């Protein structure tokens, strides 16, 4: 202990005097090390993500994608959109604000060029984005089970309407949609090809 003016004391040591119930004292020393939270560590990496999930208590949208199945999407409102549907038609998913839609893709709704470029039909699929108001700020586009590119023609269609794009395979696009729709509800749309295409 160091004595400073006016009988004030300032402790610079790491030992502390603990008094027990009967008035005795015991000096306890602590090691010279940075504090650690070893008692809080976990072997499961998922627990670390849960601790850092800043949107955990946010209100999820009604059409939140609970899981991506092998042939479709299971939404939080207990809707399961599968492709092919009962009639055998290839079906995509369109999510706008709190609404969920099945998009019939079997009548030329899209085509795959050179095996990796996806082009949506303006007349069959993309025209819905001209009819909705207010328009979403961002459209998340899922292009099937593998990584592909959205065609320049489809990109221009969205760009002319002032809609920004986030493009990926359908599984990752569903995750991106969930994150963005939770973070900024009402301004995000999703157009997802089935995950088995």
Automatic annotation (TrEMBL):
It holds the Pfam family DUF498. GO terms for biological process: mitochondrial respiratory chain complex I assembly. InterPro entries: MTH938-like_sf, NDUFAF3/AAMDC. SUPFAM superfamilies: MTH938-like. GO terms for cellular component: mitochondrial inner membrane. PANTHER family: NADH DEHYDROGENASE [UBIQUINONE] 1 ALPHA SUBCOMPLEX ASSEMBLY FACTOR 3 (PTHR21192:SF2), NUCLEAR PROTEIN E3-3 (PTHR21192). This is NADH dehydrogenase [ubiquinone] 1 alpha subcomplex assembly factor 3. It comes from Clavispora lusitaniae (strain ATCC 42720) (Yeast).
């Amino acid at each position: 202990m160091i004595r400073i003016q006016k009988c004030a004391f300032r402790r610079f040591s790491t030992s502390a005097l603990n008094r027990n119930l009967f008035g005795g004292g015991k000096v306890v020393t602590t090691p010279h090390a940075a504090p650690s939270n070893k008692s809080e560590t976990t072997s499961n990496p998922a627990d670390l993500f849960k601790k850092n999930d800043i949107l955990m208590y946010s209100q999820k949208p009604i059409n939140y994608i609970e899981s991506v199945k092998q042939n479709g999407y299971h939404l939080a409102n207990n809707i399961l959109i599968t492709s092919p549907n009962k009639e055998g038609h290839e079906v995509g998913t369109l999510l706008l604000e709190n609404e969920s839609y099945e998009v019939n893709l079997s009548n030329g709704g899209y085509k795959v060029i050179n095996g990796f470029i996806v082009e949506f039909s303006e007349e069959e699929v993309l025209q819905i984005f001209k009819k909705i108001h207010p328009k979403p700020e961002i459209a998340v586009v899922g292009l099937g089970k593998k990584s592909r590119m959205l065609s320049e023609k489809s990109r221009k269609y969205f760009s002319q309407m002032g809609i920004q794009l986030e493009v990926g395979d359908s599984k990752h696009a569903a995750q991106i949609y969930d994150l963005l729709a939770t973070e900024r509800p009402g301004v995000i749309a999703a157009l997802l090809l089935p995950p088995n295409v």
